[in-house]
Design brief:
This is PB1 domain-containing protein. The chain has about 100 residues and is of the alpha+beta class. It is built from 2 helices and 6 strands.
Length: about 100
């Protein structure tokens, strides 16, 4: 589809805390709110922050969980480059493995 916008969705949690889960101690997010924000995947970082700020009613900072990591390794997103790298990492994990046939 030429000219079609490709949307990505962020599952955004705020107002809670990251706490150890009983009994295994694995970290989890507790309390607060969780919302889904759908945006065009080419959105600039500054515009993403504005949209998130509008959703939450205040200024935000963005930290994300990489698809292969736990909550103890959140990554700060502070620029267009960081956002592009995050999207690329999720694309890499989501794409089916390529197989080579001989």
């Amino acid at each position: 589809m030429v000219g079609a916008k490709i949307t990505i969705k962020f599952l955004c949690s705020y107002g809670g805390k990251i706490v150890p889960r009983y009994p295994d101690g694995k970290l989890r997010y507790y309390g607060g709110e969780t919302r889904v924000l759908a945006v065009d995947r080419s959105i600039p970082f500054s515009e993403l922050l504005v949209k998130m700020g509008e959703m939450y009613g205040s200024a935000v900072s963005l930290r994300c969980q990489l698809p292969t990591e736990d909550l103890d390794a959140l990554v700060s997103i502070t620029s267009d480059e960081d956002l592009a790298n995050l999207i690329e990492e999720y694309d890499r994990v989501a794409s089916p493995p390529s197989s080579i046939k001989i």
